[in-house]
Structures are given as structure tokens and as C-alpha cells.
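To the wet lab folks,

You asked to see what we're planning to order before we commit. Fair enough. Below is the target structure as C-alpha cells, and below that is the sequence we designed to fit it. If anything looks off to you, flag it before the synthesis order goes out.
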């Protein structure tokens, strides 16, 4: 019999934030206030209303606990004054907003932030966002989005960290730390909201809001870890998701919100629904009507209702009818009041109305946004080392619909970023080169090919062509899913026509998701991929094209050859007929071939085994050599730490940074295990020609997973370990756990 090592579910990232004052004091103040509240006032606290609604009178009567989508500090102070000075108990309003990748200074979209593999810059981005948003009075953001997303058709891949649970953990925790700062009550601290709990990224077919079928084991192994890690790191709030998992809409799932979140994980923060996700349980056919949906949501463990108004309208009757208890309401209100006390809102409800404009776009914010955009760009191809552009390249053609698209380079959920402050690639490149600008197409979906000939004519007189293609901001994000992922409009035709000029072609893709760009890569010498890079994207890209900065980003999602391959992710469970290295493709099959399956393995006849590019992939202007990769033992016991050492040498001409990745495979498990799993990564900076001896430390306990008996264990046996520059290269080093 195999002996398993049962592990206590210790906090992976128990770094925690501090509360203001001590928690006994907060609890005392919560109880004192709660004891004075009428039922109507309690219900009011559980109600969140959006800007655009006439809520002043409701606030005065104690009918609103939180508002969203109001960002003007004057207006926020006015609302706060009504709550604090004119309502009976003077409970401050909690002002919230989707501050997803920056408030005024917009950082790359979260998928781009994940491409940096640099939690420090991501944390800094969240800190900048918090400083700018809290200056307006926004103390709660609906971020980070922790939905593991493995299907690029889903528009919301833009908003998360991609397909890998571990990268999701690291980036999620970095954002929580950045938003919430050192002390919740500091006026620059903004409560994070981890969302969408849970499984929303697994929408069938990559179609937003769609159903999901995720086993409990897959939830625990893949979809929960980032939520758990952020809860351990002190995330103050959590949002339920729109979708159902195995028939249960999250907003009404008591197992999820009470048994797992509260009981198992000990979450003492506040749970909010997504926008009308309580009401949408009626559309799901899970609740009979709005009243029933309020009952289900509260019983499941929801504290605050975003925009269904079901709590406001029906809690009183639900209590009268005995369908809800006063204890259930009190628990929810406690969670809400605790949050408000923790944020110091009672002591400090107002903002200095001039501060918001003073801190917006501060030079250090712009510098951090630029650094993040530099680190997030991924070099996918560089034939003939066409990049960085050589010194003798003076005159360039800048073309394509994304070259000068200040609004679109901000990406999805950039409500408060202003295009006037955006530096586009065209503007930045004009400072460096003799630029001929001929857009060719005017927006990403433009299929009017008449402008292409002007771009081709202009290409004839230049040293190199830089073509900016991709997606408008509105083509990704919530409710913006696609069934095919090629470049929209005539963008591929533009690249192909430029190719025919024989000039060096540098293609820069600015998009909200991984697109299927195989033919565009074939028609380009170099390809740089920039998930919408935000305010400073233009300067960042100019630095990368000229070689002032060297690309270091890596893919946070697998790039597909064709949308029909989705979902496709590197860390999939092993199949019974895995890749054996032989592919019989469509045109290899003889006519009237007899039916056969023997010898065939898991691949597509038209696109083969592989994706276009693997997770973790990204080139540099230099080259790196990995050598002497070794582990300290061949056999470990459960309490050991695996020490992995390696040499990394920069064998090229540029000082650069490599994202070194450590993957593990558990060869035999009580359930089928992933082919590989990312366990650690590190950005290693090296001067040209420099070597470094580096190490990773990986506790054996990090090999634990939820096994056949739904226990969190390290199962003894054989493992493989890789240290490499992406998920598809490197040699396995085997070891055992006994
Ligand atoms: C719906 C989205 O799903 C969620 O992510 C967002 O925070 C809310 N709307 C509020 O805007």
C-alpha cells in the first residue's frame, strides 16, 4: 500500500496585511453598532447601488451600504456627507470601482502583467492604482480576477493571469498586497476583491457566462489555489461568479461560500455578488423569482448584493416568513461593518478633493507603468536579428491600425484612464526615427483594403517597416468572446502586402488575448507581442524596438495555431495515448483508407500535436545557456526541501533578463496527473557574457495535490523536474519521494 503524506493546508502566502487597531477593538465596535441597527438599516448595508441611480435619499434613510461607479471626489464627498452626517447612524459608504490595471495611469492588461513573471512590478502597479483611486475616495476595487483561463476565445482572458494556477497565485497575491498596502486603514489602502469565485474562466466553448462542469478535485487543484492564497494573504473581499459549476450557480452555492470559504479557509472578509448575479439565478432556472434568489444567496453566504435589489426588496418578508433568520442577516452585516472599520472609514470618511488630480499620472507612476509594459512584451520571433533595429535604420514606415490608437492600447476595463495621457507607438517612434506614417487600415476590424496600397508604396522608400496590428480594446474583456482568433479585418492582408516589398518587416501585435497569428509570423521577420500595454505602451515599445530595453516577457497562455484547438494548455492531464512523435496529418492519409485507431494518438489531423507556441515561451535579443542543472539528492522525504542548482550564461551581445522556470511532473498518481506543472520561476539578470550560479528551493510539500480520496497529499513515488526557459524545453531530472 502506498503511504500518503497528508498535509495541513498551511497558508501558501501567509504574509497578511495588518488591520488598523486590534481586531478585538474592531469586533467590539461592530457589535456596538450592530446592536443599534434596525432591520431596515441592516438590509441597507447589504445593498450596493451603481452611480446613475438616484441614491441620495436611499443613503439618507440608511438604505445603501456601498456604491460603485462614482469616481469624482467632490461627488464622493457629497455622498459620504449624506451617509455620515444625515443618516441616523452615520455609517460611511464604501465606494467601489473596477480598478483593474490602473486608475488614471493604466498599466498593461492583467494578462500582460502576468507576462512579466515579475510579482514586484505587478505589486507596484497595484500600489499605484490604489494611490490614484483612493485619492478620489475609491476604497474598494473589484480586482484581482483570479480565474484560470485556458480558452482564448473567452474575452476575459485579458483580465487574468492566464492558464497556470501557480502564476495565478503569485500574481494574485502581488496585486492584493499592492492594493491593500501595509495597513488596511491607511488612506491609500484599497480593499481587494478576489473574483470570480469560482470557475468562471472555464466557461464551455469560451463563451462568457456559460455553464461549467468542474469536478471538486479540479476546483481544488486548479481553480481554488489562487483564491486560497489571496485569502491567506489578507484579501478583504471576494466576489461570486455568474456561472454555475455542475448545476450550482456560485451565488447560491452554500458548499462553496460557507463550507469551503468560511469553514475551511477561515475567511472573515466580505462576500459580494457579481452584478445582479443573485437575480440571474432566476434566469438560470435555479430560483423561482427575485425573492427566492435573495434567500438562496444569503443562505449560501453572500453578504452584499450588487445590483439585483433583491436583498433590499425581500429580506424583511423572508424573515417574517421564517425563510431567513436574523442571525443570518447579522452575520452578513458584521462582515460588512468589519470591512468598513478595518478600512478606517468611520474615522476618516472624506478625501481631500484636490489630491486626485495631484497624484494622477505622477512621474513615478508613469515610470512604473512603462517598466511594466517593457517587461510584459514578448518577443515571439526575430529572424535575421532584425530587432533591435540597427543604427543604420533611420527611416521607417509605421503602419497598421494599432500604431496610433491611444484609446485601444489601454485595453479593457480602463474606465478612468484618459487617452490624452496615452503615449502611442507612433508618437514615441517619431522621437527616434524619420517616420513615414501610413496607417493602411484605420481600426482593427477595418476590412477596407484601399489604404493598403498607400502603405505598400510608402514602404518602398524606407529602411524597415513596423506594422502595428491587433485588437481594439472592445474586442476582449467581459462579454466579448470570439469563435475565431485570426487578426480581424484586413490586417493579415496588410502584413502580407508589406512582406511582398522585400523590406524587413517587424510586426507588433497589441491585443487582449492570444491570437492565432501563424501566417502573420510567416510574413514577418520579427514579431513582438504586447498585451494591451496601457498609458506608456508607446514608449515601452519604442525602447524595445531600438534595443534600449531587451524583451524578457514570457507567454502566460499557450498560443494556438487555430481556434479549434482550444482549450489547449501545457499542464493538461496525461492521456492514455500521448504524443509519440509521429503525426499522420490530413494529406498523409491515402484515399479510401481503412478505419484505424491503433497507433494513433491524441492530436488533430489538421493542426497536429503542438500549439503555435508553448506556455512560458519568449525570446530575447541575447541567448541564454542553461548548464549544470542538478538537484541535491535523488530521494527526498516529505519534510525535505529540494535544492535545485543551475548555471545560466548570457551567451549573446545584450545585457538581458531571463525568466527561469521550474516545472515538475508527478509520474504516477492515484489520479491522472498533469504533464507538467510550474512550481517556481525567477527573473535572472545577466550582463552580456556573464554567468550566474542560481538556485531554487522547493519544499517537497509543494508537490501535494488533492488525490483520489480528496485529501491534500504528497504521494510518494517518482517525479521529474525541469529548469528551462519555457514549458516545452529542457531535460527531466528524476527524483523520488519516499
Ligand atoms: C460584472 C463583472 O463580471 C465584474 O467583474 C465586475 O467587477 C462587475 N460587473 C462590476 O462592474
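Sequence we intend to order:
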Amino acid at each position: 500500500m502506498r503511504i500518503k503524506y497528508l498535509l495541513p493546508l498551511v497558508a501558501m502566502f501567509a504574509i497578511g496585511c495588518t488591520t488598523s487597531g486590534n481586531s478585538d477593538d474592531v469586533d467590539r465596535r461592530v457589535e456596538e453598532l450592530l446592536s443599534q441597527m434596525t432591520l431596515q438599516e441592516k438590509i441597507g448595508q447589504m445593498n450596493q447601488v451603481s452611480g446613475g441611480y438616484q441614491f441620495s435619499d436611499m443613503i439618507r434613510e440608511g438604505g445603501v451600504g456601498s456604491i460603485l461607479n462614482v469616481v469624482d471626489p467632490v461627488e464622493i464627498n457629497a455622498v459620504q456627507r449624506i451617509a455620515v452626517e444625515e443618516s441616523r447612524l452615520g455609517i460611511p459608504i464604501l465606494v467601489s470601482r473596477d480598478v483593474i490595471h490602473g486608475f488614471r495611469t493604466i498599466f498593461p492588461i492583467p494578462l500582460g502583467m502576468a507576462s512579466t513573471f515579475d510579482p514586484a512590478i505587478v505589486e507596484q502597479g497595484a500600489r499605484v492604482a490604489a494611490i490614484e483611486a483612493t485619492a478620489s475616495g475609491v476604497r474598494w476595487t473589484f480586482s484581482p480576477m483570479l480565474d484560470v483561463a485556458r480558452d482564448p476565445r473567452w474575452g476575459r482572458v485579458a483580465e487574468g493571469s492566464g492558464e497556470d494556477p501557480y502564476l495565478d497565485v503569485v500574481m494574485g497575491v502581488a496585486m492584493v498586497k499592492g492594493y491593500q498596502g501595509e495597513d488596511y486603514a491607511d488612506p491609500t489602502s484599497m480593499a481587494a476583491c478576489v473574483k470570480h469565485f469560482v470557475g468562471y474562466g472555464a466557461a464551455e466553448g469560451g463563451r462568457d457566462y456559460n455553464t461549467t462542469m468542474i469536478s471538486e478535485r479540479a476546483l481544488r487543484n486548479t481553480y481554488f489555489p489562487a483564491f486560497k492564497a489571496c485569502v491567506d494573504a489578507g484579501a478583504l473581499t471576494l466576489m461570486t461568479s455568474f456561472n454555475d459549476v455542475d448545476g450550482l450557480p456560485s451565488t447560491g452555492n452554500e458548499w462553496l461560500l460557507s463550507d469551503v470559504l468560511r469553514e475551511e479557509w477561515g475567511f472573515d472578509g466580505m462576500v459580494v455578488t457579481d452584478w445582479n448575479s443573485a437575480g440571474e439565478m432566476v434566469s438560470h432556472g435555479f430560483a423561482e423569482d427575485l425573492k427566492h434568489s435573495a434567500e438562496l444567496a444569503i443562505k449560501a453566504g453572500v453578504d452584499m448584493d450588487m445590483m439585483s435589489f433583491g436583498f433590499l426588496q425581500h429580506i424583511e418578508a423572508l424573515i417574517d416568513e421564517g425563510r431567513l433568520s436574523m442571525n443570518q442577516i447579522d452575520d452578513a452585516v458584521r462582515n460588512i461593518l468589519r470591512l468598513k472599520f478595518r478600512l478606517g472609514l468611520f474615522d476618516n470618511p472624506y478625501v481631500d478633493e484636490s489630491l486626485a488630480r495631484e497624484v494622477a499620472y505622477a512621474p513615478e507612476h508613469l515610470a512604473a507603468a512603462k517598466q511594466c509594459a517593457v517587461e510584459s512584451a514578448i518577443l515571439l520571433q526575430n529572424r535575421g536579428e532584425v530587432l533591435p533595429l540597427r543604427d543604420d535604420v533611420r527611416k521607417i514606415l509605421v503602419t497598421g491600425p494599432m500604431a496610433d490608437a491611444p484609446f485601444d492600447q489601454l485595453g479593457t476595463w480602463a474606465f478612468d484612464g484618459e487617452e490624452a495621457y496615452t503615449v502611442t507607438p507612433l508618437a514615441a517612434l517619431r522621437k527616434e526615427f524619420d517616420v513615414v506614417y501610413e496607417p493602411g487600415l484605420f481600426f482593427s476590424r477595418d476590412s477596407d483594403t484601399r489604404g493598403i496600397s498607400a502603405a505598400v508604396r510608402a514602404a518602398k522608400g524606407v529602411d524597415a517597416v513596423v506594422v502595428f496590428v491587433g485588437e481594439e480594446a472592445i474586442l476582449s474583456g467581459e462579454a466579448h468572446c470570439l469563435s475565431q482568433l485570426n487578426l480581424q479585418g484586413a490586417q493579415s492582408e496588410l502584413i502580407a502586402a508589406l512582406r511582398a516589398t522585400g523590406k524587413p518587416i517587424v510586426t507588433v501585435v497589441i491585443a487582449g488575448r492570444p491570437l492565432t497569428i501563424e501566417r502573420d509570423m510567416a510574413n514577418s521577420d520579427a514579431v513582438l507581442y504586447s498585451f494591451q500595454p496601457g498609458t506608456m505602451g508607446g514608449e515601452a515599445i519604442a525602447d524595445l524596438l531600438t534595443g534600449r530595453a531587451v524583451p524578457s516577457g514570457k507567454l502566460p497562455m499557450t498560443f494556438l495555431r487555430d481556434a479549434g484547438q482550444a482549450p489547449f494548455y501545457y499542464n493538461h492531464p496525461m492521456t492514455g495515448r500521448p504524443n509519440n512523435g509521429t503525426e499522420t496529418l490530413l494529406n498523409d492519409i491515402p484515399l479510401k483508407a481503412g478505419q484505424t485507431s491503433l497507433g494513433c494518438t491524441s492530436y488533430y489531423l489538421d493542426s497536429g500535436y503542438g500549439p503555435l507556441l508553448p506556455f512560458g515561451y519568449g525570446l530575447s535579443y541575447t541567448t541564454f545557456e542553461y548548464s549544470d542543472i542538478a538537484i541535491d539528492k535523488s530521494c527526498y522525504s516529505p519534510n525535505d526541501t529540494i535544492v535545485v542548482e543551475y548555471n545560466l550564461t548570457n551567451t549573446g551581445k545584450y545585457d538581458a533578463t531571463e525568466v527561469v522556470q521550474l516545472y515538475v511532473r508527478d509520474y504516477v498518481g492515484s489520479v491522472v496527473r498533469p504533464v507538467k506543472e510550474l512550481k517556481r520561476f525567477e527573473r535572472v539578470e545577466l550582463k552580456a557574457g556573464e554567468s550566474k550560479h542560481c538556485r531554487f528551493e522547493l519544499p517537497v510539500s509543494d508537490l501535494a495535490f488533492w488525490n483520489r480520496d480528496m485529501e491534500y497529499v504528497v504521494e510518494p513515488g517518482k517525479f521529474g523536474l525541469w529548469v528551462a526557459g519555457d514549458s516545452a524545453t529542457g531535460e527531466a531530472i528524476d527524483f523520488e519521494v519516499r
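Structural context that might help your review: Residues 319 and 325 are 6 Å apart (CA to CA). Residues 326-342 form the longest helix (17 residues).

Thanks,
Computational group
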